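User: I'm writing a tutorial on reading structure tokens. Could you give me a worked example: one chain, its sequence, then its tokens, then a sentence or two explaining what the tokens reveal?
Assistant: Sure. Here is the example chain.
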Amino acid sequence: MIRPYVAEDARRLAALHNRVFTDRGTTLDGFREWVEGTLDSGGLVWVVAEPQLIGFALIRPVPGLQGVGDLTGCIVPERQRKGLGSRLLRFVIEELKSTDFWQIAHCVTSLDSPAASFLRQHDFFVEHEEWLLELDDFSGFAEIHGGQSLRLQTFARETAVSLFCRLYEESFNGLPWNEPFERSEVWETLPDSRDMLFLTLNGDPIGFAWIGLDANGKGLIEPLGIVRAEQRKGYGRALLLRSVQELAQRGAKRVEIGAWLNNKAAIHLYTSLGFRHRKTFTYLAANVKKRR
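And here are its predicted structure tokens:
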């Protein structure tokens, strides 16, 4: 039986999730927060029961991409290869036809993985690929030199959120890797406005870098952008250099940054500064109906 998720499913479903996704273990509270956040954002969750729970499927809206849902799901190992996964996927796709979702996607790190093989057998195609690049040697990073005309600044949270949304649009609108942020999303996920760096030219903001540092000393820069009118002038390089310096000053031992594989300009910049390719993420997608 495939049915919608109910709150009473949380405990058993969290245990099922941890059995299957051993590298992404979660607590019961963490699992509940994930599922409830999915439902609150307009997502959908189903479970497979016979009568014990043996699988689930979750569709979470992708921020900034209207009608695109991120697909997560599984069947417990002892019940796999019996057609249940295929039945669940067909059920989900049929259900989505009466919703605002037009496409679903799932990220894999290898096209040889069981998940990738399963999805490609069900007409999923490679939608795009992203590189994760890593830097662990900051010795060659010098201070940026732009005199008084070029500065790195932070702003109060209200200003930072509004400015980021505007500059992001001016940097990426119309490009394949444009995944615009909702203002509410930025507000909720930016607890410290010092994590949003802005590059200003003669006092005018022309670029941004959202940085972060985890408890293990790993720094992250994503996204990073320069407005169209000021691109190809070396400002992106200056912004990246200073962002790495800021993370190093905070104690980062290494820094990660992501880029779409077909964003050749970004990958060239990152690799020219010493970032090395660490992992490839491939996004497989399926269209469940025509886009409106």
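What the tokens reveal: Helices lie at 10-20, 28-40, 84-96, 114-121, 157-172, 183-189, 235-249, 264-272. The chain has two domains: 2-129+283-287, 138-273.
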